[in-house]
Amino acid sequence: MTKKEQLVELLRQDARLSNEKLAVMLGVTEAEVASMIDELEAAGMIIGYTAIINEEEFDKNSVSAFIEVRVSPEVKCGYDDVAAVIAQYKEVNSVYLMSGGYDLAVTIKGTNLRDIAFFVSDKLAPLSGVLSTTTHFILHRYKEKDKMFIKDSDERSLVSP
Amino acid sequence: MDYENILSKKVQSLQFSGIRKFFDIATSYDDVISLSVGEPDFKTPWEIRKEAIRVLEKGKTTYTANSGLAALREAVSDYLNSTVGVRYDPLHEVIVTVGGSEAIDLAVRAVVDNGDEVLIPQPSFVCYSPIVSLASGTPVIIETKAEDNFKLTPEALKAHITPKTKALVLPYPNNPTGAVMRKDDLEKIARVLKGTDILVITDEIYSELTYGDAPHCSIASLDGMRERTILINGFSKAFSMTGWRLGIVAAPAPIISQMLKIHQYAIMCSPTVSQYAAVTALTSCKKDVEYMRNEYNMRRRLIVNGFNEMGLDCFEPQGAFYIFPSIKKTGLSSKEFCERLIEAHRVAVVPGDAFGDCGEGYIRVSYAYSLSHINTALERIKLFLKELGV
Questions:
Q1: Which chain A residues are within 8 Å of B302, Cβ to Cβ?
Q2: Closest by CA position to B230, among listed B108, B337, B69
Q3: pLDDT per position as a tens digit, A4-63
Q4: Of A17, A119, A115, A111, nearest in space to A58 by CA
Q5: Residue B9 placed within a domain
Q6: Domain A55-140 is of which CATH architecture?
Q7: pLDDT digits 0-9 by tens, B88-107
Q8: How far apart are CA B305 and CA B299, in angstroms?
Q9: Contacts A26 to B, Cβ<8 Å
Q10: Architecture of the A3-42 domain
């Protein structure tokens, strides 16, 4: 792995590591870390830093759903226009173009069930180009962004040879 | 019953390891953050676990050949050839053992007669000296020094050789110091040994955890050394398989055939499920090993830097997953340091003298922990040193 790949791997694990610590771990200078990060950001390879929230703990009432969307592609710009419109809603967390039985996969978070129902019936379904939607509610989270929600205990003894 | 009179004097004279004693102290506190384990924090790679489940489902639960599954011995032979460049005949020159520990025991018992001397560099893993004593041999300790980066020097080796010297234990990459012997270091040792009848028992259990540009070098690969070397390795550290209890030993056939007798009577064969899983480890887990080595390497840099910043001198270890900083400037003994650290800030590290008298003045700190765990422990140790006025 190159230093840059190692840096990305470390940020993936913990984006809050200071440049100072990253530099030590990678065996490079702090300035080199800063410039690698600048490059990654400028090139659009790192597009942001965010916390992974356990929504079930943070807001027990919140509801998330995964929506399959079938779309009729526009002649000029394929799926991009519809996807861009869907993506601009702030309750939408992610939008992907998919292979297989449907076209767009949309994840969404609402404060309650009605929020999501309203989003689908009033915002998503009427969009021109949207043919049909299928909404799946998320019941429980196990892993997100490489992080496990399942607590993994350290079973090693406190001291060993 | 008068057990003291009945039980073996030889065994009674053995001490429990210093690690064990410290374990008892550490477990008497709650909320301890430990930096004192000698095993990886990674789970065994899933491919390996899956293979074990598969063979259990298929009911492969019988004994294997004494020396181990043929497929595993072949994989071991290929692995040693590709990693250290030494070819061993899987039929006559390899035994699959119950951990590296059994391999050490077999090697010593196959080599040592009454009063024979075995050279043991220290600080080192706790088992060598007791195993030599149990085999009625005499352990001869060679102290290695921080100024030599805890390497065995040819001068120190020569100074301890007598007509009774049977073997040299070569424990590198080293637990607890993290020292490694590079090719040029080993060549100097080889020059001293060639032309003698002294065997080398090289414990390379941490070989995959060697950092820096050059990969691990085995003394067995040096010119003229294969015939006088017993090479020990295993699955615990490289593949995160401590609980599977699986080691390997490779040596010339005349040595292996003697060791096999002991193994056959004492052990029969190593655990069968573990052996099948180990084939998968050797044939399809190269990427996992690389990933783990890379992770350890980054933690190593972080923790060495952390200790040096605190003002505790720490030579840069090139292997294993330990650092061995000096705590001499605190004016405390290793034991006092560790006991006070755990009492005041609930951080467990192991006193250096658990690994030999010359480990006094040092502590063993393991970095087989997550980054956040290491960072929290470092903060606490920093606070402790501040309170000590260091």
A1: 21, 24-25
A2: B108
A3: 999 999 999 899 999 999 999 999 999 999 999 999 999 999 999 999 999 889 998 899
A4: A111
A5: yes
A6: 2-Layer Sandwich (3.30)
A7: 999 999 999 999 999 999 99
A8: 10
A9: 298, 301
A10: Orthogonal Bundle (1.10)
